[in-house]
Amino acid sequence: MGEKVSNQQVILKDFVTGFPRESDFEVTTSTVSLKLPEWSEKGVLVKNQYLSCDPYMRILMHKADLSFPIDFFTPGSVIFGYGVAKVLESGDPNLKEGDLVWGITGWEEYSVIEDPQKLFKIHHSDVPLSYYTGILGMAGMTAYFGFYDVCCPKKGEYVFVSAASGAVGQLVGQFAKSLGCYVVGTAGTQQKIDLLKNKLGFDEAFNYKEESDLNAALKRHFPEGIDIYFENVGGKMLDAVLGNMRAYGRIAACGMISQYNLEKPDGVYNLLRIILQRIRVQGFEVFDYYHRYSEFLDAVLPLIRARKLTYVEDIADGLNAGPAALVGLFSGRNVGKQVVAVVPQS
Amino acid sequence: MGEKVSNQQVILKDFVTGFPRESDFEVTTSTVSLKLPEWSEKGVLVKNQYLSCDPYMRILMHKADLSFPIDFFTPGSVIFGYGVAKVLESGDPNLKEGDLVWGITGWEEYSVIEDPQKLFKIHHSDVPLSYYTGILGMAGMTAYFGFYDVCCPKKGEYVFVSAASGAVGQLVGQFAKSLGCYVVGTAGTQQKIDLLKNKLGFDEAFNYKEESDLNAALKRHFPEGIDIYFENVGGKMLDAVLGNMRAYGRIAACGMISQYNLEKPDGVYNLLRIILQRIRVQGFEVFDYYHRYSEFLDAVLPLIRARKLTYVEDIADGLNAGPAALVGLFSGRNVGKQVVAVVPQS
Questions:
Q1: In angstroms, rounded to a whole number, what is the distance separating the alpha carbons of residues B54 and B330?
Q2: How many CB atoms lie within 10 A of CB A21?
Q3: Sorting pLDDT into bands at 50, 70 and 90, what band is B263?
Q4: How many helices (H) and strands (E) does chain B have?
Q5: Touching check for B278 and chain A: CB below 8 Å?
Q6: In whole angstroms, what is the distance from residue B253 CA to residue A278 CA?
Q7: Cβ B233 vs Cβ B261: under 8 Å
Q8: A220-244: per-residue pLDDT in tens?
Q9: Stretches in chain A below the pLDDT threshold 70
Q10: How far apart are CA A257 and CA A222, in angstroms?
């Protein structure tokens, strides 16, 4: 038995219906032994540093859908997601005490990770560690492979990005600009619009909440139509985009955050356009690209170091602030990538 | 001036709202000179033999949508579509009197075709000439390239085809079977279901009009889910299929006949499945494959001659029967490919 320490944890109280609220979660404190338990001799014991707030986590707050072979959250148990952690004890020959890793971990101070082969070892710590929850982690790979592989972009094409200041969208826009595309983003506050135009280099941006007619807004920004849509929101925006796609357009279906809280999703009506304009709608999951992580790092790390790629983070301070940060994603409270620093930084 | 002859024509009376009716058309008789007019010195004068009834023609009955660079029908004028014709006089050096061609022509006995370079010359007449409106024409290429190119099929995959006994569907099913796929089709009458199972070699088929729950019907026929959906109908069927697609599934969006007569299309709700199952929805137009016609003929003609590919046609007798045949597509009256023989055969 190792030293006993307190372990603050974020617990899901019950399955969530509609928009998640802070009160759907409870921050509790248990104690934990700082030793890898016997039942997990091949696992690792880690101290979590940063946790990632990601829209897909909303889906895990539903009752498990047995047709999907993924782990849903369990009411009464600690929730989990992407995070950056330091290894305290390792039963895995590829990891040792002191190593930094990123991957799926618990929303708590200390976690036992039972399948450490799924973790990514962090070899470069000259960049902010929190980046491994975002630009150098799942979100970064989503943007990179989603844009370059799924969208098959060409110089000069018209690119539209929804949730454009978010963890993924802000990168898609910058990748598209670097390739010589014309890029318009949409987001839900003036602050985010300013960020897109003034800091992230988007050609144009508009606040969808201030547009009574999304179709008209798109026609205004894309009089020639849209070649590539990087889809993060779904629903009414997708419908409006379908009506404005150019021939041979591509839609990378990455996320549909506007739909996750609805009991019944919005209907989409403009699907005939898929045929008339020969559109490709491609759903993808970043896991399918994890074997190409080193290729991704080789491309993105130099851009970060040379300050050719910007990443806006919104860091919540401490696990106590975790539930608010997580549910804030769904009202757009975050500006940039939402991270939770497990240990308060202030 | 050449010999004057009577020229029976099918005229669209006015733009069509809702389901098209026979009374939306008028069959009239004018006279025509059997000589290429001076204003079309590079065109060809043809005598039409067979006309093709195709679902896309419904779209052309709307008022022109200027965002699509295609020709819509003009009220008061003769309608047009794919057909097989014999050249009577040619201003095109590649065509001569007596040649048989297929391509876009008028719904009338005699037509002047102004852009004959778009016509396909018929070199093989040991097969029924009417086949060039279907299996050896646009529908055949749609099925062939739509299935082999767009769907990227693999042996053993689960394939679902809607409007399965139609001009395209019956071929997709046979191509899929020949590749070793498991193929289920749907259609709207018992006669068509029998045809699919007993003549066209589908593994299973069901009458969608007798299913109160399309989702349940699909689960019954595809307990493992669907790898490939060849989409000819859209709307509620598409929605149900999305809920039953397997990971990495492909949907070839070829047509959405259920939607063409609606003022407002049906809403589709299951789009999140595109992401969760990494589905590719690919719209396509057969025109993009026209340059590969000889490759297609080389593949399909031998199969027809060896009777390894069956094609069910429904031939209406004479132009007078044309309007009923055309509108019959939308109530599913036709059994197999609907053709109009310009010259009555009985």
A1: 10
A2: 12
A3: confident
A4: 8, 15
A5: yes
A6: 9
A7: no
A8: 999 999 999 999 999 999 999 999 9
A9: 1, 346
A10: 23
